Amino acid sequence: MFARSPLKSAVLLATTGAILLTAGCGGRAKNKDTAYVARDVNTLYAAAQERLETGRTKQAAALFDEVERQHPYSPWARRAQLMSAFSYYAARDYNKAIQSAQRFLSIHPGNKDAPYAYYLIAMCYYEQISDVTRDQKTTAQAKQALTDIMRRYPGTVYARDAQLKIDLVNDHLAGKEMTIGRSYESSGKWLAATLRFRTVVDEFQTTSHTPEALYRLVEGYLALGVPDEAQKAAAVLEHNYPQSPWYQRAYKLMRKHAPQDVAA
Predict the structure, then answer these.
(1) Under a CB-based contact definition with an 8 Å cutoff, are residues 197 and 184 in contact?
(2) pLDDT band per the 50, 70, 90 thresholds, residue 136
(3) Do residues 200 and 177 lie in contact, with contact meaning Cβ atoms separated by under 8 Å?
(4) N or C: which end of the chain has fewer CB within 10 A?
(5) CA 114, CA 229: separation in Å to the nearest integer?
(6) Is 54 exposed, middle or buried (0-12, 13-18, 19+ CB in 10 A)?
(7) Domain tally, the chain
(8) Are 102 and 82 within 8 A, CB to CB?
(9) How far is Cα 123 from Cα 33, in angstroms, rounded to an integer?
(10) Please, which residues have CB within 8 angstroms of residue 24's CB and are 6 or more apart in sequence?
């Protein structure tokens, strides 16, 4: 785990840039938010920055949006777009954060901050990953967004962090398949259960769920009357996870129901 996440590091750089830009300003905005009042770009950006630094993230986002609206041709407008996206993210308004980041990318696709914008989008999906008992659409979106970062910007700190998070996402998706498979199994729907466990073994073989999935395949194939397939699953389990309690259970199951397929 990084001492400082790529997201926080990028925000620190943006904050530093804002301080440099505002060094010559005559003062900050008043405490009262007046985003609808026309103001010079220095004052407006400083007001947005002040709200962000003091935790008033939604107000900050609105003021960063005003920077772009009131001063669209200012050098500050591009930075304000990205800071708006981060402010919405910090406020946990993930939909608006994604929209702002995507808008930044559509206008500035080759900008040096594009990797950060993609990372911000991925984090918005990642932080919305729900319990495995619920729909996993957001989990799949997080995986796709993280994969995009690794493909577009290999070797960067964003790609390294994305790889770590993809491992967790895959574990989560595998957990969902296991939950559904166990449910089918408990109701005697062996074929449907076996298909779910097969998905875990084929698509998420590096996750923590694989040993159990292999054991469940042994159960399922025996229940379906195909001991040869059960033996294959047990062999894979023995080869890859010989110390796993799931292998011990599979061995006992094979000895009981298909002793002719178990090595002496």
Answers:
(1) no
(2) confident
(3) yes
(4) C
(5) 49
(6) exposed
(7) 1
(8) no
(9) 29
(10) 42
- Measured CA to CA, the distance from residue 260 to residue 232 in angstroms comes to 13
State percent of the chain over pLDDT 70: 83
The CATH number given to whatever domain includes residue 31 is: 1.25.40.10
Answer yes or no: is pLDDT of 16 > 50: no
Spatial separation of the C-alpha atoms in residues 151 and 67, rounded to whole Å:
33
Task: Name the residue range of residue 61's domain.
Answer: 1-128
Of these ranges, 5-9, 35-39, 68-72, the one predicted with the greatest mean pLDDT is 68-72
Q: What gap in Å lies between CA 98 and CA 26, rounded to an integer?
A: 34
User: How many residues does the structure list for the chain?
Assistant: 264
Residue 7 lies in a domain: yes
CA 134/CA 175 separation, integer angstroms: 11
pLDDT, average across residues 206-219: 95
Inter-helix orientation angle 157-186/137-152, to 10°? 150
Identify the pLDDT of residue 61: 93
